[in-house]
Amino acid sequence: MKRFQNLKILGRKHWTGDLVTKGKAIVLYGYGINCDYETQFALSNAGFEAERVHVNDVVAGKKKLEDFHLLAFPGGFSYGDDLGSGKAMANKIQTSRIGSDTFEAHLKKFIAEEKLVIGICNGFQMLVKLGLVPALEGKYFEQQSTLTFNESGRFEDRWIYLKGNKESPCVFTKGIEKIELPVRHGEGKFIPANPKILEEIKSKNIVVFQYADPDFNVTEEYPLCPNGSTDSIAGLCDETGRVFGMMPHPEAHLFFENHPRWTRKKECLLREGKEIPKEGQGSPLFRNAFNYVKSKLL
Amino acid sequence: MIQRIEVALKPGFTDAAGEGVVSGIKSNLGIEIESCKTVDVFTVSGPIEEAQLKKILFAFYDKIIQDVSLSPIAQAKDFNYLVEVGFLPGVTDNIGNTSREAIEYALGKKFGKELSVHSSRQYLIKGDLSSEQIESIAKNYLANQLIERFEIFSTEDWEKGKQIKASIPKVKEDFEIKVDEVNLDVSDDELVNISREGTLALNLDEMRAVRDYFKQPEILVERKKQGLGEKPTDVELEVLAQTWSEHCKHKIFNATINYKEGDKKEQIKSIFKTFIRGSTEKIGEEKDFLVSVFHDNAGIIKFTDDWNLSFKAETHNSPSALDPYGGALTGIVGVNRDALGTGKGSRLIFNTDVFCFADPFYSGNLPEGMLHPRRIFEGVRKGVQDGGNKSGIPTVNGTIVFDDRYRGKPLVYCGTGGLLPAKINGEPTEEKTAKPGDAIVMVGGRIGKDGIHGATFSSEELHEGSPATAVQIGDPITQKKMVDCILEARDECFYNNITDNGAGGLSSSIGEMARSSNGFELHLDKVPLKYAGLQPWEIMLSEAQERMTLAVPQDSVDDFMALCKKHDVEATVLGKFTDSGMFHVFFEGRAVAFMTMDFVHDGLPEMILEAEWSPEEKAGAEEKIFSTDFSGDLKKLLASLNICSKHYVVRQYDHEVQCSSIVKPLTGAMNDGPSDAGVIKPIYDSWEGIAVSNGICPRYSDIDTYHMTANAIDEAIRNAVAVGADPDYVALLDNFCWPDPEVDEEKNPDGKHKLAQLVRANKALSDYALAFSAPFISGKDSMKCDFRMGGEKISVPPTLLVSAVAKLPDVRKAVTMDVKCKGDLVYVLGETKNELGGSEFLALSGKIGKNVPVVDAEKALKLYRALHSAIKKELVASCHDLSDGGLAVALAETAFSGELGLEADLSTLSKEDGMDNTQILFSESASRFVVSVSEKNKEAFEKELAGNSFAVVGKVNDSNALLVKGIDGNQIINEKISELKNSWKKTLDW
C-alpha cells in the first residue's frame, strides 16, 4: 500500500476498480518532464493501465518497453530546454543503450509492432528532434523538421482552436475535427527541413492539427496561431498514424471545467435546460488510443 | 584543452532572441539599433580532442535551422559591435551544466572535475552607435555585472584579429583552508567591531552572551576534550550569527515592545505570540481544519479526508534588487522547497506571486547601482516564470502593485501550495522527528560560495577570480529531479525528517532538525562542493540552492541512495543525528564547533523595543475632489498601473499544468477578464477545490496601518468568496515587508513610529482574523526594506500581503467575474460609504485623503455566507469583488469581460447618506461585490441575501456600452465597452 500512496491522486477508481483489459501505457518522466501525472490520468481514465516510469528505469532495463502498448512522452521542460526544447532528452535517448541494444532499436521495434507513441508539447519537440515524426518514407530517427522559438519570442499560455484533419491516418484523432486546448510553450514554431518535406507531409495527410479561428478555419493570424508555425501546423504523425505529436495539451482538457469559458457555457446550458458535458475535449483522443489498442493489439 | 563551440541560426530564419534584444534596447534604454543576431557559445574545457568534439557536435545544434562551428561564426560584416556575455566565476550556469551532461552521454563516459562547459552568448549588433552607447547597452541591458562579464569588439577590432580567446571563468581555488579562533575577551567597542566587520549583525548584548557562554568553566572542560578552547571558532561564531539573525529568529516579532499611543501605554510580549499565533490558537478552538501551524516550513490544513494542504509565501527582495532574474528565480524555487519540506513532504500544486515595483516608466534619477524599475520588472517576471514553468507548477493567481517607494527595494512575494497525504502507513504526515542515529543526508545541488552572508550582503567588490557570493541562481531542473525523487522516497518511508536548505544553509537545516533528536555530528569535509577553496564556515552557511536535508534511518540509507541514483540526484551522508545535546561539527576529523543545542537555539537575549504611535502626517484632510468627467476618470483609472490588465505577465506563466485549472487568472468571453482568485481541483477523482487569493493595500498605510491590514484581510477573503469558496473554510498567510523599525539616532530616527505602525497592523491582524474566524497558519517578515545609497534613503510603504487558501466544496459551482447573459439583473452587495481615503481615484491627482475604508467584519462575514449559499445553489451568474477604483472599475470590468453592455443607476444603491456621484463611483469601501443574476433566480437570490445590504442597480444588455445614471438621474457615464477594455489593456501591453 505505502508504495502507491501518491498514486491515489490519480483517482481511486482507476487503481482499485476492476480493469476490464490489460491495455498498458508507459508514461515517461524525469529530468524536468512535468505533465506526467495528468498524462497518466488521461490514459488511465481512457481505460489504460498507465504507469509513470522514470526514463532511467527504461535505460536500466528495469521496465521494458515491450511490456506496454502505448508510450507517452509528456510535456514539461526536459533538461530545462537548455540546448533547445527537447534536444537534450533526444540526445540522451539517441546515445543510450538498454542492455546490448540501443534505446533507438527498442523504439524501432515498438513502432514496428504497431504500438502507439504520443508526444505532447516537450514530448512532441523530442519526437521531432529524434526524428520519430514525420519520419517520411519510414525514415525513423532522421530529423526532417524542427520546432523552435515562437515568433513572439515568448512562452505563452493561451487557449487555441484546432482544426483536425479528417483525412489523417492518425489513430488518436479519429473523428476529432474541432477541439479547443491550451498551448503552453515558448518553442512551438514548426519548420520543415525543406519545401519538399512540407509538400509531402501535406499530401500524405500527416498534418493532424492546424491552428484555427473560432469557426475552425485554419489561420496564420497571431494569436490564433500562437507561434508562427509553418502552415499553422500544431500536430503531426508518422505515415502509419500511430506515432503522433502535438504542441497543444489534450491532457489539460480532461474536464469540462478546464475550459476557459466553461462558466459561460454552463450558464447557457442551464438556462436552456440542457445537460452539462461530462468530460473535456481532450478525453476522446486518449479513448481513441485505447480503442485502437483494444481492437488491434489485445 | 579549451575549445569553443559556436551555434547560430542559418541565414533566413527569424532570430527571436535577437529581435527581442532590438525591442528591449529601445524600450529600456531608448537606443535604436538596426538589428541583432545571436550566437550561442559553449566553451569546453577538458581532455577532449578536437576530432572527438567534432563527432559529437550533433548534440549541440539543431541541424534544420542552425549551423555549428569550432571556429568563430561571426564575420566582421555582420555587425558594428559584437558583445559576448558570459557568467562570472562560480555563478550557476545551467546551460553549461546540461551541455556537460550532453558530452558525457555522447561520448558514453563520465568525467570528473577535469571537464567543464561554460555557456555564453554573442550579440552581433548593427547600428550607428557610439562607444558609450554600446557600453551602456552591454552594461545596462545585455549583462548584469554582478553575475556576468562581457567583452565588446568593434568591426575594426575583429578585422585586425582582436577576437575572443577561448577562456573559462574559473574560481580561484588556492586558498588556505583553515579554522580561525576569535578572541572575544575584549572591550565592548571591540565586540561591536568584531560583529560589524564580520557582517555578523549581532548587537552588543548578543555578542556578550556569546562571549560569556564560552567562558563558563563547565563548558570549557568539555570543549577542551574536543581540542577547543574558550575562544569560539569562526564556524561557531558564524553559526550563532546566522541562527540568531533577524531573518531566522524574527527578533522584532518576538521582542518585548513598550507601546505608547497617546496616553495609552502597554507592554507587548512578542507581536508574533500575542497577535498572530494568539489569534490562531483561539480560532483553532472552533475550527477543525488546522493540522500544523507556525512550527514547520509551511502551515498545513486539512483539505479532504485523505489529503492535507500546505501553504507558504515568502519574499526574496534584496537579491531581486541586485539581480532581478536570479533573485526572483531563487525566490520561487526557494518557497517551493519550503512547501516540499513541510511535514513529510508535499507535492507542489500551485504558485501565487505578488510583486511590488516602482513605475516601469519612471524617468527620474537613479543612484549608481540601482537598476531601472522596468529592468527589475522584466528580470523578476522572467525569473519567476522560469522557476514556476520549469518546475511544472501552475501559477494560479497574483498581482503587481506599483508605488515609486519600491524603487530601492522591489518586493517579490512568492507563494506555493502543496498536497500531502494525511497519512502514510498509518502515520500522520505532519509529524516528523529525526531519531538519534539517523543519517544526515544532503540531497540535490552542490555547495559553492552562493549566498554566503546572503542576509547582509558583503560590500566587497566583485572581481575576476572571486565568486559572486551574494547572489544565487536557482536551477529548476535540478530541483525538479530532486522533487520527483523525494516524493518517491516519502512514499517508501525512507526518511524520518526533512527540511529545506534555505537561509543559513546546513547550519540552519540541520540545527533545526536536530532539535527533535537533541544533537548531531556533522562532517563538513564530506560535503560535495562545486569547486574547492571553501572555508569550513562557508560550507556550513552556504545558501547554494536546490538542496534538502533528510534524516534517514541507517537501515534505509542504501535504498535511499539507490533511489537517488535512479533520479540522477546527488545525495551524501554527512553525519548523524544524536541525543548528545550538542551541536557538534567536524572538519577532517577535528571538532570545529561544539556548543550545546540549548545555547544555539535559546541563548539569544531577548530584545526590548520602544514603539510610539501618532497619526500619520501624510494623511491629509478629507479631500473634496469632484469628478467632472466620469467617463474620462474611469478610463484613466482603468489605465492606471495598479488597475490595468497584467495579461503581459499572466500569459507568460503556465497556469494550466497538472490539469487542475478551474478558474484561470484571465477569464470571460475573450479570455481576458481579471479573475478575483484562482481555483484549482488538485485531485482528479474529487470535485473539491481550492481557491487561492491575495489581499494587499499598501496605500492605506499612509493613513493607518491598522486599516491597511483589515482591508488586506478582507480583500483576500472577499476574492476567494467571489469565485465560490466557503468563507468558513479560509486559512491565511501573513507576509510583512516593513521599513526598519529599530531606532538609530542617525540613520533611522523614526524607528519608534515604524514599530508602532507594525504593532497597529498586528492588532488589526488579530482583531480581523478572529472576527472572520480565518486563522493565519504561517507567515514571514522582512523588516529592513530600506535602500540607502549616496545619502538617499528610500523606504517601502509598510506592506502586508495576506494570502488566502479557501475550500470550494464543489468546483462545478465556481463562478467567474464576467457577466454572462443580456437581461440579467446587476446587484451591488455590501454598503458603499464615503471612503475615498487612500483610493486610486485620489492617487490620480496625487492625493491621499483621510477616510480610509473601514472593514465591518461582522457584516462582511454575514454577507459572505449568504453569497456563498447563493453560489452553491447556482443562483449567481457572475460575481466580481470591488477593490481598487471602486464601483466604477468593477462595473466596467465585469461588463467588458463578458463582452456585453451594462446599465446602472446609482440612486438605487445601498449607501451612506449624503454621498455624491464621485464618492459612490470611486470609494473603495470594503466587503462589496457586483453580481449578476438571471431574472428567473431573482426571488431565490434575494431570499438568500435577506438581512444584508444589497440592491439591484441595473441590467446587463447588448448595447456594448456602460451606461451609468447618477443620483440625480443624469447620465454620467456612457462609454463603449471596447473603449474601456482598450484603456485597461494598453498600459502594459508589451
Structural commentary:
The complex is a heterodimer of chains A (298) and B (990). Chain A has 298 residues and is of the alpha/beta class. Helices cover 27% and strands 22% of the residues of chain A. Chain A has a single domain (2-297), classed as 3-Layer(aba) Sandwich (Rossmann fold), CATH 3.40.50.880. Chain A has nine helices and 13 strands. A nine-stranded mixed sheet of chain A has the order 2-1-3-6-13-12-11-8-9. In chain A, strands 4-5 form a two-stranded antiparallel sheet. In chain A, a hairpin with a 5-residue loop joins strand 12 (233-237) and strand 13 (243-246). The longest helix of chain A has 15 residues, at 283-297. In chain B, 32% of the residues lie in helices and 25% in strands. Chain B starts with a strand and ends with a helix. Chains A and B meet through helix 2, helix 4, strand 7, strand 8 and helix 8 of A and helix 1, helix 3, helix 15, helix 16 and strand 25 of B.
